[in-house]
Amino acid sequence: MGDIIRTVAAKSLEKIDPGNQKAIAALMELIDKPQVDDIIRMLAAESLGQIDPSNQKAIAALVELIGKPQLDNSIRRQAAKSLEKIDPGNQKAIAIWCLSRTSF
Fold it and tell me: CATH assignment of 2-103, given 3.40.50.880, 1.25.10.10, 3.90.550.10, 2.60.40.10?
């Protein structure tokens, strides 16, 4: 329940203050937690793509998600879509995407 509340709060903060560092930190925490379910992780990845363009921490978190083949493909696709919004042309993400494209 706490993860859902955090996601809703972070999504609300994104609308109020797109550069809010606390919201970004909360979203990154949700992405990194192994016990978070796929839907919450996907929503957090989506929010990172809208909250702060060019935020290096958000970019790194999304690149890391793309490179985790153990995650559901829908999460990795959402991370790629979000990354495209905040850092189009990210060479590391493109390389990871190309290497794992057969698993998407």
Answer: 1.25.10.10
Q: Which residue has the tokens 């060479």?
A: 91
Secondary structure (H, E, C), 7-21? HHHHHHHHHHCCCCH
The total number of residues written for the chain in this structure:
104
Measuring CA to CA, which residue among 72, 84, 9 is closest to residue 41?
Answer: 72
What is the structure's pLDDT at 104? 47
Q: Predicted confidence band at 101 (pLDDT cuts at 50, 70, 90)?
A: low
Q: Contact 40/30 with Cβ under 8 angstroms?
A: yes
Domain boundaries in the chain?
2-103
The Cβ of residue 24 has, within 10 Å, a number of other Cβ atoms equal to 22
